Amino acid sequence: MYEYRPFAIPVPICVAAGPRRGRNGGPDVIRLLSFELALFVSPFIAYALFLWVVRKGIVHPAEWSAGVLAVLVVVAVVLTAIGFAAVAQLSGAPAHSDYIPAHLENGRVVPGVRK
């Protein structure tokens, strides 16, 4: 529903049921901010590690034998598999659950849920 004003951009009329309330979930905001901060800082940390490694001479080809690379690849694959398994087991909805999307009930928005 829009308020009619000639020669103006239509603006929706506010039909809120009551005052806005904050979400119950302060830790969620802290988690999101810390994740964003980690994403922001990670390139600087990676560059600092790169500089340290170059100065130590670790990136010299003689330091990277086939055995060392094979061990590193195996460790990387195992850690990746553990990470995928942890995400699959510890997040998401239970098996065979149904998602009920957000909808209106009696003029109020009911958030989506998994049942």
What would you say this structure looks like, in words?
It is built from 2 helices and 4 strands; from the N terminus they run H-H-E-E-E-E. With 115 residues, the chain is mainly alpha-helical. It has a two-stranded antiparallel sheet. The radius of gyration is 26 Å and the shape is elongated. Residues 16-22 have low confidence and may be disordered.
Question: Keywords, please?
Answer:
115 residues, mainly alpha, two-stranded antiparallel ribbon, two-stranded antiparallel sheet, 2 helices
How many β-strand stretches?
4
In terms of per-residue confidence, which ranges show pLDDT below 50 for 5 or more consecutive residues?
16-22
User: What portion of the residues fall into strands of 2 or more residues?
Assistant: 5-15%
Largest sheet: 2 strands, antiparallel
Count of alpha and pi helical runs: 2
Secondary structure layout:
Layout (H helix, E strand, L loop, with lengths): L25 H31 L9 H25 L8 E2 L2 E3 L2 E3 L2 E2 L1
Antiparallel strand pairs: 1-4, 2-3
Short description, anyone?
This protein is mostly helical.
